[in-house]
Amino acid sequence: MNSTLDSHQQDQVVLLDDVPSPAADAPEPFVVANERRVVIAYRIAKANFERFGPFDEDDDPFCAVEFSMAAFHQFGPPNDEGLYAHPLAAQGLRGYSAHEIVNSTLVADSWGPDAAQDGFRHYVLTFQDSTYECVAADCTVVGIYGNGDIAAREAFSLCK
Fold first, then answer.
1. For residue 50, what are the domain limits?
2. Are strands 37-43 and 30-33 parallel, antiparallel or unpaired?
3. Which of 1, 59, 62, 2 is nearest to 32 (CA)?
4. Are 63 and 143 in contact (CB under 8 A)?
5. 128 φ, ψ (degrees, to nearest 5)
6. 40 and 26 in contact (C-beta within 8 Å)?
7. pLDDT at residue 149 tops 60
């Protein structure tokens, strides 16, 4: 048996319904971080406008998502076309979505078997050109903004 495949079978991919989906045609998401928190900002999908709006017709809505007490974060492959090759794809990882990985192999292997009880949670956000992963205590939408400049200012102010 393939031990890598077996180890990922404990991973449970849960869609985070309260985090807006990234837009498929969005410019690159950006991250601002310090030692306590990470904030990622990205353009939200038009399908989320009604749910997270209202917006003016000239708005270009962005959200800012905070990961508190972040222990690890990275952008990397795969992009949207290669998402099928991600180790969590078979467990339901979807494109242009935010997920929490319950019973995370990454967390258990990196921080020990009791890490989840100690507050380490694994999050994965999928974008057009990359996948973002973060291990943190929590994931919270801190705001929905009319454009990327406002989202960037808010992200920077949270990480001062």
1. 3-158
2. antiparallel
3. 62
4. yes
5. -65, -50
6. no
7. yes
